Amino acid sequence: MTQMNFTYTITCNTTLTEAIYVDPPPAIPPIYLQGTAIVVYTLLSILTIGGNALVYLTVFYYMGIATGTNLFIANLAVTDFFVGVLCIPIVLVSDYLLADWPFGLFMCKFTSFSQSVFIVCTVYTLIAMSVDRYVAIIYPLHSKLTRKQCYILIGMLWLFSIIFSLPVYFEMHVIHICFRRDFNGLKEYTQTICQTNGLLPSIQNIYNIMTLTIIYLIPLCILSVVYIRLGWQLSQSHAPGEAHSQRDARIKKSKKKVIKMCSIVVIMFGVCWFPMQLYTNILHPYFNRIFDQKYVPHFYFACHLMAMSNSCVNPFIYGIMSSKFRAGFLHYWHRFTTSYGSVTDHFRHSRHTHDSVMLTASFQKAKRDYKVNLTCNQHTDDTHATQIFPRSTLPLISSIQRESAYD
């Protein structure tokens, strides 16, 4: 779990003899670092909120295919969206914009608790998505997760994340430390810090190691084993249980694209969160012994920026590697730039004024029954329009049932 320190400076309300002083005073970010952080964090928050909102809209309103992987990707987008809404702006305001913590004790607890929930939910959503892909590829004849089962699993992931993060809520508190900022002792300040209750060093070290292991090391080991196994399986001459054919070659290519995209998402998570996990759980107690105090704000800024940027990069990965997501992003971007109505009108227009005609084709091929639902998103004046598929198109429709949603 990351520890977030928020500070503000006010005049001490104590006499010189009653104040508790710290020598030397905590390091303050220099002006150039504050200016850089304001620009970078503002841009990062906008991209995180906008990009993950596009992912959510694309999955549920554009693709129209609620596969298990789609639902897990949407859940990742939800956690990343709230990081952009809550975590990034709080750090920007408290640490750099105002150098002040105006939010009170509850927000100190709630912000740290929420960030822990988002991190844990992200990690175990990645695991659930990788295991789902593993079962689908290694054991293709086994039944896949239904949409209802995916929703239940996602709900359980959120519940586990909340329960796991509850200690963070109860152990966070606000403390005030007075100190002299100048050398003549005429000015006194107090620094208010949102941090964990002081634990014994041995207990704190055990807690940090457990946190690092449960939410970072073990998940990354599981994910590495799963994706290495999947990569090896897909590199074989054919997938198990499938015949050699042009159709199966397309399916195999589509599966490779999905696995490659998901593995890059996992790699980016590991890379982005490594510095923050290293700083918080290993280096933090010894940092002042290793580096000069004046470099602490710079190192913390770099580590925290990398961790928060992970919530921004996933939409770019989807857009680059998936033609479906790329088309969905372009669709909603075009709608956003050309629409002059309210947000409510935009969503209503997306679902109602833009004619969506559901076309169902039921047929039998090779002694197997197929039922295909196709959505026509073309504008038309006749909302009751129908379309009849000619017989010559049925073989083509049958292949659609087997194609991946990401190709």
Strand order within the widest sheet? 1-3-2
Number of helices: 11
Low-confidence runs of at least 5 consecutive residues: 2-11, 14-20, 349-357, 378-407
Number of strands: 5
CATH homologous superfamily descriptor of the largest domain: Rhodopsin 7-helix transmembrane proteins
Q: What is the subunit arrangement here? A: single chain
First-last Cα distance: 37 Å
CATH architecture of the largest domain: Up-down Bundle
CATH top-level class of the largest domain: Mainly Alpha
Structural class: mainly alpha
Mean pLDDT: 75
Strand content: 5-15%
CATH topology title of the largest domain:
Rhopdopsin 7-helix transmembrane proteins
Following the backbone from N to C, one meets helices and strands in this order, namely EHHHHEEHHHHHHEEH
- Note the main sheet: 3 strands, antiparallel
How many distinct folded domains? 2
Radius of gyration: 26 Å
The portion of residues assigned to helices is: 55-70%
The shape is globular
What is this structure, in a nutshell?
With 407 residues, the chain is mainly alpha-helical.
Task: Offer a few descriptive terms.
407 residues, disordered C terminus, single chain, Rhopdopsin 7-helix transmembrane proteins, 11 helices, mainly alpha, 64% helix
Task: Please characterize this protein's 3D structure.
With 407 residues, the protein is mainly α. Helix content is 64%, strand content 10%. The strands form two sheets. Strands 1-3-2 form a three-stranded antiparallel sheet. The protein has a two-stranded antiparallel sheet with strand order 4-5. The two termini are 37 Å apart. Keywords: G-protein coupled receptor, Membrane, Receptor, Transducer, Transmembrane, Transmembrane helix. It is a multi-pass membrane protein.
